[in-house]
Amino acid sequence: MSTNRTGGDLDKLADIAMGPGSRIGALARRLAALVTDRVQEGLAAEGITDVRPVHLRVFVALDQGPARITAIAERLGATKQTVGPLVDELVRLGYLSRLPDPRDSRAKLVDFTPAGRAAATTAQQCAEAIDRELAEQVGLARAQDCRATLWSLITGLDRSAG
Question: For the whole model, what pTM was predicted?
């Protein structure tokens, strides 16, 4: 038997039926994918078609204000080598800029441009609308219970939280 997987084999893995009895991680990934797709659709409706899902993570990491790439990487649980090219791409697309760090002339801070702030705001508004829609679907109390349960599961598995 070959250890080389073909695309067809991977397609079979993706065809596993999802349902209420599916693994929590699988359900969480599916929900995250659906939310991401809806946010992307919301951005596209506003004419923002060059922001990829991975860019949205960088936007969230900058929500606290300008930061060095090392701080962005830390917030994302990633490496500087992973985040650097994403920032380069977002600078090239006009969503981010690099500014001198007033505390260290050798360092640069990454911040939103006006276009970047507009894209991040649009994405945030889309995510908030989806949250409201989900709360309407299951009721506010169940949505709050869901948040609390998910957070409990995350902190229970996150070794860095302890």
Answer: 0.81
